[in-house]
Specification:
Number of helices: 6
Order of helices and strands: HHHHHH
Structural class: mainly alpha
Low-confidence stretches: 68-78
Largest sheet: none
Mean pLDDT: 81
Number of strands: 0
Strand content: under 5%
Helix content: 55-70%
Number of domains: 2
């Protein structure tokens, strides 16, 4: 059982690195996933087996691919910068947390809404066209929004 736990934790940390998640974003995602099980924690080491599996599944939906043999999947999609990849991951976290309402059922990732958000912040249509400075501003804005969402949710569900 300890070997399974260690393997899951190792895979989680590989995913964190592959998706280029900073510490605050990673901890927010861990909290979001663990909150589904009734007790939010900020460390994967404090999660139970079901929670760790759910976290890995969530990370896979955002692009984490386990290495097969000697070849690992690329950390970014073709044509997307790591910053654009991170913007998409943060946006998906906001959708998952319920902060973004899905207005188009045919577009569960709310790409149109993300483009609108990016354009309001920067004047640029797509996250993949942002300069490094603009992308950092969008990332920081999304992280602050995600943090406010978690604080609001924690206040609504005091333990």
């Amino acid at each position: 059982m300890d070997n399974t736990r260690n393997a899951e934790l190792a895979a989680i940390h590989v995913a964190k690195k592959q998706l280029r998640l900073d510490e605050a974003t990673y901890r927010s995602i861990v909290e979001m996933v663990s909150a589904r099980f009734g007790h939010p924690v900020s460390s994967a080491g404090l999660m139970g087996s079901r929670e760790r599996r759910a976290l890995l599944e969530q990370l896979r939906t955002w692009g984490f691919r386990k290495a097969d043999g000697a070849t690992a999947a690329p950390a970014t999609r073709p044509g997307q910068s790591p910053q654009a990849q991170k913007i998409l991951a943060l946006w998906a976290a906001l959708v998952e947390a319920g902060a973004v309402t899905v207005t188009d059922p045919g577009d569960p990732s709310c790409v149109k809404q993300l483009r609108s958000f990016v354009k309001r912040m920067t004047g640029v249509e797509s996250a993949s066209w942002l300069s490094a400075h603009q992308a950092n501003n969008v990332i920081e804005g999304l992280k602050a929004w995600l943090e406010r969402t978690f604080v609001k949710q924690a206040g609504a569900n005091p333990e």
